[in-house]
C-alpha cells in the first residue's frame, strides 16, 4: 500500500494538483506529517529536543505540529564567531543539529575560505545554500541530492502552470538578475534553461562576476560590523570601494543586457529577473528607441523576489511589460522561500499563489505560538508551512511573513488553499520581528552544537 507521504509527493507532475480542497487533503496530509515526524524525530537533534520539551509524540492534527515547527531564524543560529574565526568544524557541527543526514567529516584545517568549505561539503553530498542576509546574517540551509532532483522538476512545473508556457525548448533565455551561486539557484536555472531554452543557444546572463556564498556572507558580516561601529577604517574603505566597483559593473551589465535583448528582439524570449533589474534594462531599451512593437508577441517573464527596497515608479510593472511585449497571461510570479523546497505559482485569473498538496500551510498568531482556527474562507496572520518534499532538513518553518491564507475556491477554478497577493514581512511593518520560540530554539541549537 502506498504511504500517505508517497501519495502526496506523487502529485508533483499532476496537472490537477491544485484542484483538491483543504478538506479533501487534510486526513492524508496529517498522516503524511506524522509519517515524516516519526521518521525524522530520531535523526534531527533539534527536532527531538523540541518534541520532548513539548510532549509531542505524534502528529494527529495540525495543531500538534506547531510546537515542532522551526522558526526561520534557526538557520541563522550559528555563533557569529564561527565565521569570524573560520571555525569550519564548528559550523559543520552546528549543521549536524538541524539536518537528518550526517554532515561530512572533512579535513577542516585544509579549508581555505567559506566558498571552499561549501564546495567540499557539496562534493561530499551536503549541498549548502544561503539567503541574501538582508537582516544582517545569512541563513545556511543544507539540502540533499534528492532535494535538488525535486527542484529540477518543480521549477519547470510551477513555471509552466503559472505562465501557461509549455516546455518546448523554443525560447532565448535571458537572465537579468545578479544571483548568488548556490546549489539551489544553479539547479533551478539549469532546469528552466533546459526545458524552455533553445538547445543550441546558451542562456544569456548579466556580464558581472558571480556572487558566491562566501562573497555574499563576507559582505553581510562587514555590513553588520559597520553598523555596530566595530569595523576597521581599512575594512570600511575596502567595502566602499568594492561596493562602488560592483555598482559600476552592474550598471554596465544592464547596458550590455539591453543591447543583447535588442539584438534578439525577433526571437521568442524567456526573460527572468527581479523588478529593479528588469526596469533598468527596459528603460535602456526604451532610450534606444525600442518597445513592444519591436518584440515577439509571445514573450514571457519570470519575476523573482520583491522590490528589495528599490525605489521605482508606480507603473514599473506596466513599463516592463510594454517594453518587452509581455502578454498579461505570460507573466509568472512565484511565492516561496529558501527554507522551503517547493514553489507556489500565482494563477493568472485569481492572481493568488496556489499551495501544492505536499505543502501544508497554516496561519499562526503574530508571536508564532498558536495556530489560529481556520476551517474555511480567508484568514490573516503569520505564515507557517510544512514542505513534505524536503529531505535534507526538517520541512516545518515559521516564517517572517504576514499572509492571507484562503481555503475557499479560487476564481481560477481550483479549490486548493491559496495565498493572496498581499504578502508583507513583519520586519517591514514594525522594524523588527520577534517569533516567540526563536530565542529558545537558538539557545537549543548553540547548546547542541
What does the model show?
It is a single chain. This protein is of the alpha/beta class and 449 residues long. The protein is built from 15 helices and 17 strands. Helix 7 packs antiparallel against helix 10 (213-228) and helix 12 packs across helix 13. The model has no long low-confidence stretch (mean pLDDT 89).
A few lines on this structure:
With 449 residues, the chain is an alpha/beta fold. The chain contains 15 helices and 17 strands.
Helix vs. strand class = alpha/beta
Unreliable residue stretches: none
Q: Count the E strands.
A: 17
- Tell me which oligomeric state these chains represent: single chain
Comma- or semicolon-separated keywords:
alpha/beta; 40% helix; 449 residues; 15 helices; single chain
Give the topology, please.
Layout: H1 4-9, H2 22-40, H3 45-54, H4 62-65, E1 70-71, H5 80-84, H6 88-95, H7 114-123, E2 127-130, E3 140-143, H8 145-163, E4 172-176, E5 180-181, H9 183-196, E6 204-205, E7 211-212, H10 213-228, H11 233-263, E8 269-273, H12 275-287, E9 300-303, H13 316-324, E10 331-335, E11 344-345, E12 353-354, E13 359-364, E14 378-387, E15 396-406, E16 418-419, E17 424-425, H14 426-430, H15 438-448
Parallel strand pairs: 1-15, 4-6, 4-8, 5-7, 8-9, 9-10
Antiparallel strand pairs: 2-3, 10-11, 12-16, 13-14, 14-15, 15-16, 15-17
Helix pairs in contact: 3-15, 7-10, 8-9, 11-12, 12-13
